[in-house]
Specification:
The protein is an alpha+beta fold. It has one helix and five strands, in the order E-E-H-E-E-E. The chain has a five-stranded antiparallel sheet with strand order 2-1-5-4-3, covered by helices on one side. Strand 3 and strand 4 form a beta hairpin. It is elongated and about 75 Å long.
């Protein structure tokens, strides 16, 4: 009787994401192979939302970024969570501050809590593929 070699089977489980409380958006699932696209697009949306909020409040974003947290899930290096951070300050007259004459020394340390916008999303693995069989077939 031929034995099935399960070592060569590619596992691509589905990841189900959670959003932070109050965060807009839909936490739609993605396969491990598509997880980076799913999380990156959500985090880019968060950054665009932060930029829009800053413009509405008369502030300027001076730093921040998007961080993707990755780990092996099944056969793929999947993005299991993401984080978007934006640091903003009150907007000054554009003639006063330029990249050449900015002497204020703005840093993350001298910003108040209202200037920090942060968003997280995390994933839980819920495999959709059948469990692997052992050598006895059961």
């Amino acid at each position: 009787m031929d034995m099935i070699n399960t070592n060569n089977i590619i596992r691509n489980p589905t990841l189900h994401y959670r959003l932070d409380l109050g965060e807009p958006g839909i936490a739609s699932p993605a396969s491990a192979s598509q997880s980076t696209l799913r999380v990156a697009s959500h985090e880019i949306g968060n950054m665009m939302r932060f930029k829009r909020m800053a413009a509405e409040e008369g502030k300027t974003i001076i730093g921040g970024g998007i961080h993707l947290h990755r780990q092996f899930v099944g056969s793929f290096l999947a993005t299991v969570s993401g984080e978007t951070v934006a640091y903003m300050v009150e907007r000054k007259n554009s003639a006063e501050i330029t990249p050449d004459n900015n002497t204020q020394g703005l840093s993350k340390d001298n910003l108040d809590e209202d200037s920090l916008l942060k968003s997280n999303a995390t994933a839980e693995e819920r495999p959709t593929s059948p469990p692997s069989l052992d050598a006895s077939g059961g």
